[in-house]
Amino acid sequence: MTDINQKLDPPPYKIKVVEPIKKTTRKERKRLLEEAGYNFFNIAAENIYIDLLTDSGTSAMSDYQWAGLMLGDESYAQCKNFFNLQSVVQDITGYKFVIPTHQGRSAENLICYALNLDDTKVTVSNQFFDTTRANIEISGAKAYDFVIPEAFQPSLIHNFKGNLNTGALEDYIQNEGDVSLIVVTVTNNAGGGQPVSLANIIEVSRIAKMNKIPFFLDAARFAENAYFIKLREKEYQNNSPKEIASMMFSNSDGCMVSAKKDGLVNIGGFIALNDEQIYRRIKERMTVIEGFPTYGGLAGRDLEAIARGLTEVIREDYLEYRHQQLEYLGKGLEKGGVPFIKPVGGHSINLDVKSFLPNIPQSEFPAWALTIALYEYYGIRAAELGSVAFARKQDDGKWIFPELEQVRLAIPRRVYSQEHLNYVIDSVLDLYKHRADITGMKIVYDPGVLRHFTARFSPLG
User: Fold this and answer.
1) Does 248 lie in the same domain as 134?
2) Which percentage of the chain shows pLDDT scores above 70?
3) Considering 51, 218, 262, 352, which one is annotated as catalytic?
4) 306 pLDDT exceeds 90?
5) How many distinct structural domains can be found in the chain?
6) Averaged over 30-59, what is the pLDDT?
């Protein structure tokens, strides 16, 4: 069992409302998996014991946020909650224009439209996450990753594995030509929730300005990234997370945000920027697909919850405890020799599946197989960030596989207790001892774009 003497301080909040969860039997879970086509997205949430699929939209809201819901102004245009959100976002980011959206991928889509991305354009990032890449590629543009090489060494300790490789970026601009958009994802979700240094953001900003390239932050986890900067960049150790976040934003032209992460809400997002021309193009487009620009596909009460969540997420006591939770989980797994992306990320522990299941080739989707085993044996739902999510099939039928094969254990904010984390630790340790029993998978239905959401599978063993 997990060492109960591990240190995890009490959370900076107390529990006011509880939601029951139930355990199912392995026999029940095997049947559910078969009915779901061995795709954990197809399993009803009521049949999940510990749900680590994502930290997106799964946060527990505070009493302050719930109280804000009762103050929702549901006027179609210019509701008061929009102005509350606008004020909070302007205060944190320093950007002039704020546009609410119903979630992050809508913000990505609107940015692609406003920047006229098409098949003649190239975009670059430290690492695009799945929906960002999908929106860019659906527009016709190319999406290239320029993360530093250290990001692909799972056991290597490096303070900022999310950094964009600025040398490679400058070489590309000089030798290959125009870039239409630079995006830095903070923290880097595709690479294990690894942070980006403020020094790196400043250098990317310099390159972008010199070459007149729009530079946006994909800032869904901006507060967690700011806290890592405080911990790991000595010159900012005396700055507050809010001050650091403001410095991050001040070095970019704008941001696109899924508020379902560091907004501490269950739905919503926004775009914030300074360029009035881009702002006007976004407003024109969103009126067609999202609704009036001051509500962005959301109810007024949702806008209020986001505004209040953004003020809570930058509290240092909250971020300290959030970080402690991840460190606690990482130390528990490390004691049992479980391989994962190090150092511990900001929102998740990402298992290094190539080391966990070295005998299963990527063509048999080992990370997917591991998530299936986690659910079948323990009722834990995790996310595959490996060959199902990121591999590409070429025209000749051959696969190009990602360098990292990961299973993400994403920790919802303000939801699970130390006892829940202990159960996760014990389960993963037990599965690691019996990893030889896990067999690969094959795809029996492939939708193409974002296949992991709807694909169906069959076990090979």
Assistant:
1) yes
2) 98
3) 218
4) yes
5) 2
6) 96
pLDDT of res. 461: 74
Using one digit for the tens of pLDDT, what is the confidence trace for 136-189? 999 999 999 999 999 999 999 999 999 999 999 999 999 988 999 999 999 999
Active-site residue, 63 included: no
- Indicate whether 169 and 241 sit together in one domain: yes
Residue 129 a catalytic site member: yes
The closest alpha carbon to 201, from 129, 273, 251, 271, belongs to 251
Q: Is 352 part of the annotated catalytic residue set?
A: no
For residue 220, indicate whether it is catalytic. Answer: yes
Strand partners, 215: 182
Of residues 67, 76, 434, 446, which has the active-site annotation? 76
Q: Are residues 227 and 343 in the same domain?
A: no
Distance CA 128, CA 131 (A): 8
Residue 94 identity (one-letter amino acid): G
Cis preceding-peptide flag for 12 (omega within 30 of 0): no
CA angle 389, 450, 173 (to 5 degrees): 80
Q: Residue 206: which domain range? A: 63-313
Q: Give 198-217 pLDDT, tens digit per residue.
A: 999 999 999 999 999 999 99
Do both 242 and 106 map to the same domain? yes
335 among known catalytic residues: no
- Asked, for residue 224, whether it belongs to a domain, the answer is yes
CATH of the domain at 439: 3.90.1150.10
Q: Which of 313, 344, 368 is the last residue of a domain?
A: 313
